[in-house]
């Protein structure tokens, strides 16, 4: 998956991808947001030996284009900035509303009193 904007990710940042999260309750073909928490720690500096060690474990620098087959296997998506605290408050409020609606519903079993015959 190619993530547009990934280079703009800062240390300890949340992003979201719409319609790639968990399926919605009683709507299996509709999906929510996929939340991604990026925690990146960059060193202040690297020695030449550390640079060489990284070059041995990382893929080669991208000076070449992807092949058509590699492009076909990629799924392009866009990351959106997320204020995770605000999202959590919103979801908590929605859950409370659903709970309150259950309390307000009239119906279900009715009480029956015994009658003398």
Automatic annotation (TrEMBL):
GO biological process: protein folding
Organism: Morus notabilis
GO molecular function: Hsp70 protein binding; unfolded protein binding
Annotated Basic and acidic residues bias: 78-90
Region (Disordered): 78-117
Protein name according to UniProt: DnaJ-like protein
């Amino acid at each position: 998956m190619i993530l547009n904007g990934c280079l703009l990710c800062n240390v300890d940042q949340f992003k979201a991808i719409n319609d790639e999260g968990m399926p919605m309750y009683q709507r299996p073909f509709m999906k929510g947001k996929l939340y991604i928490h990026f925690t990146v720690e960059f060193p202040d500096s690297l020695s030449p030996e550390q640079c060489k060690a990284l070059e041995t474990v990382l893929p080669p620098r991208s000076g070449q284009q992807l092949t058509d087959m590699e492009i076909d296997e990629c799924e392009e998506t866009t990351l959106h900035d997320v204020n995770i605290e605000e999202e959590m408050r919103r979801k908590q409020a929605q859950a409370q509303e659903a709970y309150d609606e259950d309390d307000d519903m009239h119906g279900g079993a009715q009480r029956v009193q015994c009658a003398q015959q």
